[in-house]
Design brief:
The protein has helices spanning about 90-105, 145-150, 180-195, 235-250, 305-315, 335-340, 355-365, 380, 385-390, 405-415, 430-440, and strands at about 10-15, 20-25, 30-35, 40-50, 55-65, 130-135, 160-165, 165-170, 210-220, 225-230, 255-260, 270-275, 280-285, 290-295, 325-330, 345-350, 370-375, 395-400, 420-425, 440-450, 460-465. The chain has about 475 residues and is of the alpha/beta class.
Amino acid sequence: MSIKKGEIIDLKIDSAAFKGKGIGRKNGKAVFVPNTAPGDHVKTRIIKRNKSYLEGRLLKVLEAGNNRITPKCQHAKACGGCSWQHVDYEAQLAFKQQQVQDHMQRIGGLDDLTVKPTLRCENIFHYRNKMEYSIGHRRWLSREEINADEFISDRGFAAGLHAPGRFDKILNLSECHLQDPISYQILDFIRQYCISHDIKPFNRNDFEGYLRNVVIRTSHHTDDLMVNLVTYKNEPDTVEGIAKALKDEFPAITTIVNNVNDRNNPTAVGRFEKVIIGSASISDSIGPYQFEISANAFFQTNTLQAERLYEIARQYADLQNDDIVYDLYCGVGTLSLFLSGHAEKIVGIELEDVAVQNAVQNAKDNEVENVHFVKGDMKDAFNDNVTDSYGAPDCLITDPPRNGMHPDVVERLKKLEVPKMVYISCNTSTMARDMKKLADVYDIQEIQPVDMFPHTYHIEAVAKLRLKS
């Protein structure tokens, strides 16, 4: 019998799916239900029908499975920041390993490859060094608030994170356990200040209002703390008033900047930036190398776990003192610098001009002279001219964006036949796609998943490849 949209069914959740949804089966069809965990027996309403699967909304947990725990945060069910807080952390690690294994077998065709157990994150809360909060003109109301049928005076100003998959819904936060607690305290103070001083939030419908985002950066190895106020208009008196009140309330803040994004795009990067208080950057380190991090610079979001990820990459590279290493998609050069003491030469290639400028400055600040950076699109820049100039690579490190490597880059790597390769990925489905092609000339010897983002479905992985003899 066909299951209709809107129908309420009982369902046993058997496994975890990509993006953190639980999976059960009804009448031969897979049913995906958020906020569930394997082992749960739930009541769910069908909200979407597809030829091959159904999607449901959790109504009630009839019987909790062994993997279910009570979330630490009151917003866990509704917030897009965490999707797995209701799942025991050991189970999260196992599910992430299973996810990588599934991608490698189903997409990559690597049936004989065994994925190692996920490397745990020692700090499963307060691990992020950057939070980007959204500001909006209408906050999302919880079901409890809607059902209470009471007047809500502050619904016209939202400050927090988006509901899962909904960029039009901003959940107002009264707590958050992703970053140091001072983070959401600063956010709430800004919200209350703006309400009391009649400072309007940005309205994405009619492009009116003032405040768009609040971005907070903290440092793991220093006491630096940055607040970046992203505004739609350039109003010096307004932003300076917010900054002064912030600094008075939170003396720990070391710098406040104002990014002015007066364009009709959703980015938190301004068309121009002004320094209100402090030096406009914070300082942090990975391994023995120190980095100055500006408001819009890329830096690994989980500092301590990034060090462990880089150490695995170094081990898989098995670097020798006379090796020439190419670091593809090198960003601001954090991994290039991390590896620089173990090889003769590191050549980083990166598309973004600002990232390359930061990488060059990072090398200079750390007095590292055997690292070189090349700007360009990987499919065009990684060519014979580069290898002729810097030498043939003994080892390749590639850390592409979520969509993986361009097919031309994969073919280039296959033709180069570099003896050693390390592939780092933030999206193991595109990693598996690339691995399938690279397996023509490389043995994929080992894959190590690394949990950079506890309580989310995101997983990083590092693969060790060696040229077939």
